[in-house]
């Protein structure tokens, strides 16, 4: 490997490690302010970003059992962050939706970052570079999703 690709690989690795660290730090502060745990935060993110979902789909996405998802939803419901209701067309199913309170609080916490981020990205990069960055982030996300599935198939390490 010539020195330039090796240098770029090291730089990319450091940049990704820095990005992941800052993302975890940001998530930790959102967790603190919302008074939730990481699983609850991730569930709120899923519910806020997507269509109304079911407890079973949330359990699958979060790697929880049905009982674990119920306990999590009970916590979030008690805090006023989610509501469960009957599916509009299939009354045997339940859907989970974020409440206005959850949407408002999360928006208050992340909107400044999003606004500043979009403005900065448009100042820093041209449209072709932004398309490349978007493609990179999408592919990295797909790799992480694949790796997460691989990890879910592993048994936990034994305790020493």
Keywords summarizing the entry:
single chain, mainly alpha, two-stranded antiparallel sheet, globular
Task: Write a structural description.
Helices cover 72% and strands 6% of the residues. Strands 1-2 form a two-stranded antiparallel sheet. The termini are far apart. With 160 residues, it is mainly alpha-helical. Strand 1 and strand 2 form a beta hairpin. It has 6 helices and 2 strands, in the order ααααββαα.
Sheet with the most strands: spatial strand order: 1-2
User: Order of helices and strands, N to C?
Assistant: HHHHEEHH
Please count the beta strands (DSSP E, at least 2 residues each).
Answer: 2
Radius of gyration: 19 Å
Can you describe this structure in just a few lines?
The chain is mainly α. The protein has helices at residues 3-34, 38-49, 55-62, 66-78, 100-124, 127-152; strands spanning 82-86, 94-98.
Write the layout of secondary structure elements.
Layout: H1 3-34, H2 38-49, H3 55-62, H4 66-78, E1 82-86, E2 94-98, H5 100-124, H6 127-152
Antiparallel strand pairs: 1-2
